[in-house]
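Title: Prediction job returns without error message
Component: structure pipeline
Severity: low
Priority: P3
Assignee: unassigned

Description:
Job completed but the reporter wants confirmation the result is attached to the right record. Sequence as submitted:
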Amino acid sequence: MSEETIFSLILDNKIPCHKIYEDNLVLAFLDINPFSPGHTLVIPKEKASTLDKLSDDSAAAIGRVLPRISNAILKVVGAKEFNIIQNNGINAFQTVFHVHFHIIPKFDDGRGLQYPFKSSPINHDEATIMADRLSKLLSN
């Protein structure tokens, strides 16, 4: 994958993010247009456009951390349910061509993933606090 994306810019430290988790193969950060509080993106550091192009090592690394990150998000935001979405290709609604998983908390009041999809801009002050809390929970 040679095309620059917003995620490659984040990985190259050219633009900031509200990071909640990082290891040698995976980065997780809050979505800047969340469907609900805690909406997180989990990406491989490997720059692959779709899941079928991702190496076994990167795929395994994401698989290992998705449950842990999901659990931390639910604890911090107080939700009991969530969606995980991963799209591959333009006809599958992929808009950023770097593998990524969305973890989207769902709340009893309807906040979360809805059809048709509706998001709103992130509150950066709240995101800084949430990212710090999630990062601390995930570093244990």
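Comment from assignee: result matches the submitted record. DSSP finds three helices and five strands in the chain.
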